[in-house]
Amino acid sequence: MVRGRYRVVHYLNQFFAQIGGEEKADVPPQIREGAVGPGIPLQQALGDEGEIVATVICGDTYFGENIETAAEAVVELVAPHRPDVFVAGPAFNAGRYGVACGAACTAVSRRLGVPVVTAMYEENPGVELYRKEVFVIPSARSVQGMREAIPRLAGFVRKLGLGQPIGAPQADGYLPRGIRVNAFAERTGAQRAVDMLLTKLKGEAFQTEYPMPTFERIPPSPAIKELSAATIALVTTGGIVPRGNPDRIEAASASKFAAYNIAGTDDLTADAYQTCHGGYDPVYANEDPDRVLPLDAARALEKEGVIGRLHEEYFVTVGNATSVANAQKFGRAIAERLLAAGVDGVILTST
Amino acid sequence: MRLELGIVKIRDVQFGETTRIENGVLHVSKSELIALSLRDPRLAVADVELARPGESVRIIPVKDVIEPRIKADGAEGYYPGMIGGMRSTGSGRTNVLRGITVLTVGRIVGYQEGFVDMTGPAAAYSPFSDTNNVVLILQPVDGLPEHAHEEAVRLAGLRAAIYLGEASRGVAPDEVQVYDLGGAIDLTLPRVAYVYPLLSQGLLHDTYLYGADAKGLLPTLIHPNEALDGAIVSGNCVSACDKHTTYHHLNNPVIKELYRRHGSELNFVGVVVTNLNVTLADKERSSSYAAKLVKLLGANGAVITKEGFGNPDADVMMLCKKIEDSGIRTVLITDEYAGSDGMSQSLADTVPQADAVVSVGNANAVVGLPPMDRIVGDLRSAEVIAGGFVGSVAADGALSVEIQAIMGSTCQLGLGKLAAQEH
Amino acid sequence: MPVVHVASIVPISMTVGANRIVPAVAIPHPLGNPTLPEREERELRLRLVKKGLRALQTDVEKQTVFDA
């Protein structure tokens, strides 16, 4: 069976599509058959295996001022051409163009499920905004780099067009997207560690296999003014659940959180509650679950009038090998429910 | 201190009337092994099965893995402080059966054990898919408390491994490996220490050094040979991917790698054993004390390994920070928990000093595994072990699990070749 | 809505970005101490929860550990 040529749609701004310079930067999205401008050498580099069937063009100012609608219009123009690959740029260090390339690629990928790639200078703002979802091939800062950029971009388009797997960034020449992928190395971890240490001790350049991550920072919320009138909620990542774990929260890598009603309960007892957390010695929490979720103390303070009211539900998940993304998702959902219920402050306990 | 490991290579295992080694085949007397295990009154039922590389076998849930060994001089037991009398390990001749292990199987806490497939995609992740395995399936008497259950299974595994090791008496080793730090030292080479934290988080998460519970230790100095010769025993029931089984301690790959380069690229100056405890004060004390010992050793560099994940991230970050801040360069070996999509931050704690990290894989990565013809143990455990979830076991026995559940898949001693990289 | 994170391993709490932090007892029993008699353990827990409430009543500009 002879496989047909894979179909490519290319995105360009008004300048590279030879419509005009800054004075034409407000042209809305439009489409032309075949390759245009840098698409012509790109088509040459693709050879007979792939064909640029159409080129979408949009002015940088228009795109920048209407990112969502422009991206949507690009998707509408691209869809009838049923591409196997969508490619944008190269945008070099043109900021608005880079953002447009990233946004157009993201929209086409999400809406049409088509593999996408763009090329731009590493410090183009489009990189930081879109690299997690879009393959970005690094290019030079200016259009002088077109000659090097086209073959690199073409090589990647070819891989996508032929459905070949994409390997590591160094091997396949794209900017890392922040996605951790497992692969078997040639040497064991211990060998790599000793090699890295010896290199570091010589004062030579070494490459860590995991640069230290950064975590999101949230501005602190204002304090509670009137505690005796406040509703306080209890939340825990320590896995305290009704005995039997009715919602089957996982012992590790939790995929969910749960809420349980504690109205009328003054104390968490071993016969009614337990921990389902798989990452710590469960004996103490199972003997007295208040050691992880301090209901007895919170209830006593409610009765004394120190706090206005203890919220009638507590929230629980398991913080054990649970991804930050899932934890953030649970946190957001729990916060929404607590805000909707008029809760004023939260005691969050972790094991 | 000179340790000789007399390696007897085992290429196959069979049941037999008596336990013996013939032409590289270990014959195992099932009845003797069962009787030996049931001498402990805390165990009610024992059974033995064999699993060989390439067979369609899934072993679940696995607690510990032990390499059969004995001292050639006839010293009783192999694990001082745990089995037999107290003595120092790390010198003299030790007989090692290589290519075979004892695996202890049976639910203890229900979610903190792992599995081993002898073929298929999971086999690439576990060192125990490449060994012949004598699987000891143990059930406790009714009502046995968890800690007594763990201890009984731990000791049964060690005893079984010693029992199999006895078959090496009179068998000529295929190879003799010598571990000796002595000899001429090239003073121009960098001095490298190894910082070896042991999980010590209470019942069912413990490790033993000469039988002493590691959580009570102040960090201490050992000769590398001691670890390679039975000083450290695992009592852990934690996530399978990155706990150190007793096998891992006996075959610590960092120690072996530092030995391999000792005298040519570096001077291996010693091993600092520390713990991974459950309070902040303990973590601060142990990391400071361990850093001080590394400094006292006059080290220029140190390899730091890790066991477990989550709160132990804080311990190893303290170690990196304190050791680096005392002018000694470090490399840390760690695994990652980046979510099944690989897009989350991988560690719970970080310091800027941890600038040289070896990643041994994302434990949250999910793999689909075909059914196996034979199940040793209880397949339903897959839904509750760490890394499994509701729906992990398909009706036909296929598995969908995080590699977290595979024994030794992301070993933070760096035994395997798995790595995570950014895409 | 302010949140106080009651957890044992303060460095982790700091790394992941909690703004109000109350150091707890130990990982398996952050708000308890099994070695204490029951009454003393309850008092310990009450003190930790009260400290958490004080944190919720305190305005902070940056990550703050309430260990006094």
Describe the structure.
The complex is a heterotrimer of chains A (351), B (423) and C (68). Chain A is an alpha/beta fold and 351 residues long. Chain A is 33% helix and 19% strand. In chain A, helix 1 packs across helix 6 (146-161). Chain A is elongated. Chain A starts with 5 loop residues before the first strand and ends with a strand. With 423 residues, chain B is α/β, with parallel strands linked by helices. Chain B contains 7 helices and 25 strands. Chain C is α/β, with parallel strands linked by helices and 68 residues long. In chain C, strands 1-2-3 form a 3-stranded parallel β-sheet, sandwiched between helices. In chain C, strand 2 (20-23), helix 2 (38-56) and strand 3 form a beta-alpha-beta unit. Chains A and B meet through strand 7, helix 8 and helix 11 of A and helix 5, strand 19, strand 20, strand 21 and strand 25 of B. Strand 7 (180-184) of chain A pairs antiparallel with strand 25 (418-422) of chain B, so a sheet runs across the interface.
Quick structural gist:
With 423 residues, chain B is an alpha/beta fold. Chain B is built from seven helices and 25 strands.
Features:
heterotrimer; A: 351 residues; alpha/beta; six-stranded mixed sheet; 11 helices; 14 strands; elongated; B: 423 residues; 34% strand
List the helices and strands and how they pair.
The complex is a heterotrimer of chains A (351), B (423) and C (68).
Chain A: E1 6-13, E2 30-33, H1 39-46, E3 50-58, H2 60-65, H3 67-78, E4 85-88, H4 95-112, E5 116-121, H5 125-130, E6 135-139, H6 146-161, H7 169-172, E7 180-184, H8 189-201, E8 231-236, E9 240-242, E10 258-261, E11 273-275, H9 283-287, H10 295-304, E12 309-310, E13 313-316, H11 324-340, E14 345-349
Parallel strand pairs in A: 1-3, 1-4, 4-5, 5-6, 8-12, 8-13, 8-14
Antiparallel strand pairs in A: 2-3, 9-11, 10-13
Chain B: E1 2-9, E2 12-15, E3 20-22, E4 25-28, H1 30-37, E5 43-51, E6 57-66, E7 69-71, E8 92-98, E9 100-105, E10 114-117, E11 132-140, H2 146-165, E12 175-180, E13 191-199, E14 205-209, E15 212-213, E16 220-222, H3 224-228, E17 232-236, H4 246-250, H5 253-261, E18 267-276, H6 280-296, E19 301-304, H7 311-325, E20 329-336, E21 357-362, E22 366-369, E23 374-377, E24 399-402, E25 418-422
Parallel strand pairs in B: 1-8, 2-4, 6-23, 9-11, 13-18, 13-19, 19-20, 20-21
Antiparallel strand pairs in B: 1-12, 3-4, 5-11, 6-9, 6-10, 7-8, 14-15, 14-17, 16-18, 22-24
Helix pairs in contact in B: 6-7
Chain C: E1 3-7, H1 10-16, E2 20-23, H2 38-56, E3 64-65
Parallel strand pairs in C: 1-2, 2-3
